[in-house]
What does this fold into?
Amino acid sequence: MKITVIGAGNVGAATAQRIVDKQLANEIILVDVLEGIPQGKALDIYEATPVEKTDVKVVGTNGYDETIHSDIIVITAGIARKPGMSRDDLMNTNSGIVKSCTAAASAKSPNAIIIVVSNPLDVMTYVAYKVSGFDRRRVFGMAGVLDTARFRTFIAMELNVSIEDVSAFVLGGHGDSMVPLPRYSTVAGIPITELMDQATIDRLVKRTRDGGIEIVNYLKTGSAYYAPSSSAVAMVESIVKDKRRILPCATYLQGEYGIQDTFVGVPVKLGKHGIEQVIEIKLNAEEQVALNRSADDVKKSIAKLAL
It folds into this structure.
């Protein structure tokens, strides 16, 4: 198994490190345009492998020749959000970056699976899908796994319970229009609607929607990378081990949930070939309206792209 991680910033480097720690590949290629950065970080990660007893080769490069025949490509490249900056503010700059990265990487690895982490997530996944020309089952975005993790964290914090007992689902676009689903969120199988009042649920839903910018506001000069990298690697692991986990991913819908031709976060079965099945869960009228609104927001952003 050969995995390429494009972007050697905090998210990319942390993703590479976690892949090594879990020994999910024989070789990892870390790519970045900045001379010396991917080489230095790759070597540092590689030098930790004797200590951790993880037999994974790590290579840093500024080009794409070394990425040839990659099985999975994780795209984290792009500028990070700053305080006061919305996800949409990132779109013009990052679309150009993701476009060039995808074109170069997909040409070297035409049979790869692409996981997009760059923001604004849903739109950047659309860019990668269109530029690569890959089947929709092999291009998807990491969003719902992270959003769900944040929702689970806030539920556990609120109820003072083990994170292991908390399950949750967040659908829709990765941003202000995401759709957390309290009805499908449980603690040890008990719906959270039976464990907290509506005002508390609404507060946690809002904090989940603002989860990224909350961290940006703390850091001032950076954005989240520990949880995003863990979320991306959860998807990588499901593919590498053919686990067929049901994970919420930014997926190109073609009629599912009544949504056509756009990327929206929905639950999918993720295995060695990528998306094996889009799972359609029953939504009530309010949830469907929220999901439609989220999809419309993504479509409006996509319409502004010049591909």
Summary: Residues 2-141 form a domain with the Rossmann fold fold (CATH 3.40.50.720). The longest strand covers residues 260-271.
